[in-house]
Amino acid sequence: MQDPHRRVVVAVDMESYSKRNNVLQHRAQVAFKQIMEHACAEAGLDRNSWRIQPGGDGELAILPPQVSERAVVGRLAPVVDRLLREHNQGLAPEAKIRLRLAVHQGLVHLDGANGFPSDAVVHVCRLNDSPQLKQVLRRHRGANAALIVSESVYRDVIVHYQDLRPDQFAKVAAEIPEKNFEATAWIHVPGETTGDGGPRVDKPRQVPPAPAPAAGQVFHGVTTHGPTQFGNHNTMGHSRG
């Protein structure tokens, strides 16, 4: 096993891919590849130097060490959104392509036998698959792409360089409970903002506490009110203090 390398990692996934028939999936794959190639070229990114693991409905990419993180974070998503808008014009709803993009950074082993062993890779894939990002893209029907970045990327790139303004991001707790994943992240939807600048994100639903049982006797988890006869024919009444 070779030493790991610190890299920017990008995960891209297509919304509602599995709902398409075989023909539409084939067309979507062709269009996805073309759009990503054109978007990278327009954003000044050398896609030929990316290590790409395709996934049919998207891809995982390990970027080269010399990549401009500002270009990846600040330029790629807006260009992808515009190219998708042009592509989707006139298409039936089931044929349109909308993408989720996630960006993180960390140590990656490039010599894996069947992929890229890396906590950073797992992290970026979880961000991309988080219900919070999916919900935001569904809610902003006029958008064609949504971007989520990790806390470290937001702090190192967005805050300092502001190619995309920090107030155009919404802070979320990205969670996938069944995979024991929870992380602070930031979501941006190109061209879709509210009064405070960031995309509309639903607040976590507050579950009210269960009401306390009414006054009465508790007998192995059973609350009684007044005399009660149990299966053994014993009768219990209110005890007196």
UniProtKB/TrEMBL annotation:
It comes from the Bacteria. Residues 225-241 have a biased composition (Polar residues). It comes from Salinispora arenicola. This is Guanylate cyclase domain-containing protein. Residues 189-241 are annotated as: Disordered.
